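subagent[fold] <- orchestrator: predict structure for attached chain, return tokens only, no commentary.
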Amino acid sequence: MTALDRTGEAKRLTATLAGGMAVLLWSLLALFTTWASGIPPFQLVSLCFTVAALIGFATIARKGRAGWRSLRQPAGAWALGTFGLFGYHFFYFMALGNAPAVEASLIAYLWPLLIVVFSALLPGEQLRWFHLGGALLGLAGAALLVTKGQGLAFDARYSLGYLAAVACALTWSAYSVTNRRFGGVPTETVAGFCAAAALLGFVSHALFETWVAPSASQWGAILLLGLGPVGAAFFVWDYGTKHGHIQALGAFAYAAPLLSTLLLIAFGQAEATWTIALACALIVGGALLASLDLLRRRSS
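subagent[fold] -> orchestrator:
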């Protein structure tokens, strides 16, 4: 490996680690959301995106005119970013509202596997057996977490919810993979995507929900969500999917429900079981398997 190759690989590893930070932040989503319990979902996500957008704009403003110019991007980039951030949440909430949470959540969690599969369409990427195998192990682990070791009961009456869950998985995986084609768009632009997603979220809230005035503790949870899992996470995920090892990121993503469950256990809101231990082994093993080529490069 030449010095230039090592430099490029180091940058790609850094981007992969940045994308991995998004997974860690998403693991806080369930915990923080329980603290904001009682706020309608579209209202909650809109307020969180507003917090993320304001923080992003504050960062852009510090760079002056050069920072604001980062928002001047092609219409395709704006459409992809806005649809990715808002579309995922829209279909997810529609799925949960029209199908049992277990089945809807598991279908929605197909997105990491789809990222690995769709990555084969990207220039310079090659889908190998260990990428797919690692993602499938992660999916098996996520299935254990979501179902708690119980069986699934798909019912045709909930077809609309299932279809919305499929749309949810397709939306986020397509966004994550297609994002690589806009590698020249600076990550700061995500602030604009968050603002657009917040606006669409408020429209959906007005159509489907009734406003609930947040309490002081709920405002605190909203701030934490906007800073982390519904804020900074999208910025680092943007950088990771554009410049990192996307197959590894897809497999790493299954760590989010695992870490989320472990946090709920730590805060006394869930119990440790054998299914969680097995899910942990499957997800960690899958992440290592999907990262086999990355690990080989680091050892060479």
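orchestrator: received. Logging for downstream: The chain has 15 helices and no strands. The chain has a mean pLDDT of 87.
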